[in-house]
Amino acid sequence: MACEPLAGKRVVKVTEQKTSQDWAHFIQELVDVHYPKAEKIVLVMDNLATHSPAALYHTFAPAEARRLVKKLEIHHTPLHGSWLNMAEIEFSALARQGLARRIATVEELERHVNAWQCQRNV
Questions:
Q1: Please, what's the b/e burial string for 70-88 (b: 16 or more CB within 10 A of its CB; e: otherwise)?
Q2: 109 CB-near residues (< 8 Å, 6+ apart)
Q3: Would you kindly state where each structural domain of the chain is located, as residue ranges?
Q4: Among 14, 19, 64, 102, which residue has the fewest nearby CB atoms (within 10 Å)?
Q5: Using CA atoms, how far apart are residues 52 and 97, in angstroms rounded to an integer?
Q6: Tens-digit pLDDT profile for residues 20-46
Q7: pLDDT, tens digit (0-9, with 9 covering 90-100), for 43-80
Q8: b/e code 22-39 from CB counts within 10 Å (16+ = b)
Q9: Dist CA 30 CA 21 (whole Å)
């Protein structure tokens, strides 16, 4: 999940796992689809091992990884500082508002998450 609080915008991507390749593809989507005209995209994220520029180089050709990295300004929240991470706050809201019950399939989860995202985005 990525969120832009001042714009009231959230971008949520459902994946079966949480891998560095999933993160790299999400970053590529942010750069190319959601913010194609941005000179810099500032990311504030937790310190997961999957959240690193190295993941871009492991996933894409060097030229593509370099292009993506040049667009990013990455800041990490302190350890045990998830309360500072807006995406974590949004995940909490999603869990309370959109995922109050067990969801059996990834497809059903995507439908619920997309509906929540549309409702929350201004």
A1: ebbeeeebeeeeeeebbbb
A2: 14, 99, 103
A3: 2-120
A4: 102
A5: 30
A6: 999 999 999 999 999 999 999 999 887
A7: 988 777 778 899 999 999 999 999 999 999 998 887 77
A8: bbbbbbbebbeeebeeee
A9: 14
Q: Are 39 and 7 in contact (CB under 8 A)?
A: no
Give helix 106-120 / helix 86-97 axis angle, nearest 10°.
110
Quick one: pLDDT at residue 14?
A: 79
- The token pair at 81 is 């500082």
Tell me the CB-side half-sphere exposure of residue 52, using CA atoms within 13 A.
Answer: 8
Q: Specify the 3-state DSSP secondary structure of 121.
A: coil
Q: Which amino acid is at 4?
A: E
Count the residues in the chain.
Answer: 122
4 is written with which tokens?
């832009």
Cβ atoms of 27 and 56 within 8 Å: the answer is yes
